[in-house]
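Notebook entry, structure prediction.
Reason for the run: the old model in the group folder had no record of what sequence produced it. Starting over properly, with the input documented here first.
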Amino acid sequence: MRVLPLFVVALFAVPLVAPAAMAAEITKIGDIERGASVTLQGEVTRILDEDEFRLQDETGSVRIYIGWRNRVMVEVGEEVTVKGFVDDDLVAYFRPEIYAQQIVRADGETLTLN
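New structure, fully documented this time:
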């Protein structure tokens, strides 16, 4: 019987575990908390301004702010993943807003924001 080194076994095991770990990182919009870092997945339902859009999943919707130096690069109906943090000011308590740092399109294209 041939014994494989531990690092070879680990190399093949990581791809099997990674997708499950990535799925666990997604936060539902209905579960966001002020000041938290989040990764959200959903559909773009509305372009609010040149630097804001609304993202919706099955638990709710939230405003996504991409920064004044950026312009909205997504379209209504597009499925995206947004990585960022939840604004923690008082207005955000009543109307949460996400400050996006990265947007990943369904085709895997990654948009890193300033």
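Summary: Residues 27-112 form a domain with the OB fold (Dihydrolipoamide Acetyltransferase, E2P) fold (CATH 2.40.50.200).
The old model has been moved to the deprecated folder.
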